[in-house]
Write a structure and sequence with these properties.
With about 625 residues, the protein is of the alpha+beta class. The protein contains 16 helices and 26 strands. The strands form 5 sheets. Strands 6, 7, 8, 9, 10, 11 and 12 form a 7-stranded antiparallel beta sheet that branches. Strands 13, 14, 15, 16, 17, 20 and 21 form a 7-stranded antiparallel beta sheet that branches. A 5-stranded antiparallel beta sheet has the order 2-1-5-4-3.
Length: about 625
């Protein structure tokens, strides 16, 4: 409080009770114990005549060193004139409101203060000025901290809005790099992902020495707590600062050495974990060529940015997974439709046209202009009913299939077929059998168990062939192989039946010729009805019945009545494939009784059980023997 004449010790004439403190003592006590710094200044000379302990703490000098200083020595040199003018004005007429200013401490600091000034006259008649300085350092620091936090939050919110504009991982990384570069300056920058299940760290995005680095070839980093900065940041879930790699290289293990055109050695490293909840999903890492480039001041903002990126990264990764699943499901449906088209061809297409239609479907599906599809025949040769090459205007059909003996397969084709493995050929491939030249090809053998049954190849696709086309061919061939094997087996069986039928028809034709031309009477009869099914010309001549008459008769009709019982007894006996019996009595149309020996054997006649009979006339011989 400012002193006035009413509070000066000279007022003791008004009287105080014995033992009661005088006003001057009250003032001294308040002056010495005040929290604010107080100095008393001679208004005429500007010299400080008194200072309290708080002033000593603020200015950083003992009280006796402050007393005697000029008041201008309390202020920064660049503001002496302004403060001098204010002091002279306040000494004449104190201001109603405190003034804001700074005092200069003994260690060179500028401390913000609020200055209150009051003037009074001392007992000795001197005009004095009391200046009270309230330290605003804590208030300013708090205000600056609040402003800093608001600024950081604004930066984080801005960063979050930028991240929310895309779900593309590469674009998210680019945004993070650009925004962090605004905060910590140009720096090497890296983003890595962390898989807690495998405890592996994998580079996602790196900019080093001003270059974007291809991270696809970089190795995975194992989690090693306490060793590398990334491992420490992940295990502690706290930012990790290395002030100088030159000093700390011995205790820091480096797993990834990035190669750039103009390599430089990083000195300082700041690694910030990316957290989603309490789970670490990766790290942000900044590297500077200057030592001690990062401090605790950088950490709060970078931590907020890292966690915002972690959320965006998780969302983008989930979105990518959904996109991949949808794409995989869509492709699976497409492959299933493709397979159905191919298998339908096998079911509805007869002959070698099947190969041509299947090849056409696959050439369209793989965007290829050349290909061939064929099977391995019994001799081991490759027979391709379907082959086409748009470049050479070549097309094989079922009428003109390609036949490639083993020695004409060529190295690439032979390698794929002999090893039973899909082969991708990235160089020119010539098929000597037809003169086709293929720039690139996927050759897939068709197998059933360990047996090689065919081959399917597509070639000359713009851009070549990758894993997608290889997997497609493998999938299709796995489904096609058993169907083709069954189809080939069916075709072979059909060919065998046709050959057997042709042989049978030829045999029957030969048999009919022998049957018809035989000089002895012959006939075929039904083993169930005993009706004549066929007779030769010798039987017509000897028995006197026409062919039509024979076909309307039974065996019984050429026997005399006395032979019928014997005939019935013979027919009831079990038949043998070949039988000889006789002599038997037969009766001709004219009633003549002849004696015959019978030779018969069983057969199938137009799908019915039958027997063919030869009747040798032995009448003359028997009569001669009697």
């Amino acid at each position: 409080m400012p002193l006035s004449q009413s509070t000066h010790p000279a007022s003791a004439a008004t009287g105080t009770a014995p033992g009661e403190a005088t006003p001057d003592q009250h003032y001294r006590l308040l002056f010495e114990t005040a929290r604010d710094a107080i100095v008393v200044i001679d208004a005429e000379t500007g010299s400080i005549v008194r200072a309290n302990a708080a002033a000593a703490n603020l200015i950083g000098r003992p009280v006796d060193a402050i007393v005697g200083m000029h008041q201008r020595d309390l202020y920064p040199a660049d503001d002496v004139d302004r403060y001098g003018t204010g002091f002279r004005a306040a000494s004449r007429e104190p201001a109603d409101q405190p003034a804001m200013g700074e005092v200069y401490t003994s260690d060179g600091r500028r401390v913000p203060v609020e200055i209150s000034v009051s003037a009074f006259v001392a007992a000795d008649g001197r005009r004095l000025v009391q200046a009270t300085f309230r330290d605003l350092s804590a208030a300013r620091s708090a205000s600056e901290r609040i402003e800093q936090l608001l600024s950081q939050q604004t930066a984080v919110n801005h960063f979050a809005r930028l991240l929310g504009s895309t779900l593309d991982l590469t674009e998210l990384c680019r945004i993070a790099h650009a925004e962090i570069e605004k905060i910590v300056g140009h720096t090497n920058f890296g983003i890595s992902t962390y898989d807690a299940a495998t405890q592996e760290i994998k580079a996602l995005y790196i900019v080093a020495d001003g270059e974007f680095v291809d991270v696809s070839q970089l190795p995975v980093i194992p989690l090693e707590p306490g060793m590398g900065p990334q491992s420490r940041a992940i295990t502690t879930q706290l930012p990790n600062i290395i002030d100088d790699m030159v000093v700390e290289r011995a205790r820091v293990r480096t797993h990834v050495n990035v190669q750039t055109r103009e390599p430089r050695h990083a000195r300082a490293i700041l690694t910030v974990p990316m957290l989603v909840g309490d789970q670490v999903v990766g790290t942000l890492q900044m590297q500077s060529y200057e030592p001690a480039a990062y401090s605790a001041v950088d950490i709060p903002l970078l931590t907020g940015i890292a966690n915002q990126f972690a959320l965006a990264f998780q969302n983008a990764r989930l979105y990518a997974q959904v996109e991949q699943e949808l794409a995989a499901r869509k492709r699976s449906e497409w492959v299933r439709t493709l397979l159905n088209r191919i298998l339908t061809v096998f079911h509805v297409e007869d002959g070698s046209g099947m190969y041509d239609r299947v090849l056409a479907i696959l050439l369209e599906a793989t965007e290829s202009s050349c290909g061939f599809f064929g099977y391995i025949n019994i001799a081991g040769d490759l027979i391709c009913p379907a082959a086409t090459c748009a470049r050479h205007g070549f097309k094989a059909t079922g009428d003109t299939p390609i036949r490639m003996p083993t020695h004409e397969w060529g190295d690439a084709l032979a390698d794929a077929l002999m090893r039973r493995q899909t082969l991708v050929v990235d160089q020119r491939l010539e098929l000597p059998a037809v003169g086709m030249m293929l720039d690139s090809a996927v050759i897939t053998p068709l197998t059933q168990g360990s047996e090689l049954i065919g081959v399917l190849a597509v070639a000359n696709r713009a851009g070549g062939y990758g894993l997608t086309e290889i997997n497609l061919l493998d999938t299709i061939c796995a489904q096609v192989s058993p169907v083709l094997a069954a189809r080939r087996q069916r075709d072979r069986e059909q060919q065998a039946r046709q050959a057997a039928l042709a042989a049978l028809q030829e045999s029957e034709e030969q048999y009919r010729k022998l049957f018809a031309a035989n000089p002895e009477p012959m006939w075929v009869y039904d083993l169930e009805t005993y009706r004549f099914l066929d007779v030769n010309e010798a039987a017509v001549v000897r028995y006197g019945y026409s062919l039509c008459e024979f076909l309307a008769m039974r065996l019984h009709d050429i026997r005399p009545p006395e032979e019928l019982g014997r005939l019935e007894e013979n027919l009831r006996q079990a038949r043998t494939p070949h039988d000889t019996s006789g002599p038997w009595k037969h009766r001709t149309q004219h009633g003549e009784i002849i004696l015959v020996d019978i030779t018969s054997h069983m057969l199938q006649w137009e799908g019915r059980p039958a027997a063919v009979v030869q009747a040798r006339d032995v009448t003359a011989r028997v009569h001669a023997e009697r």
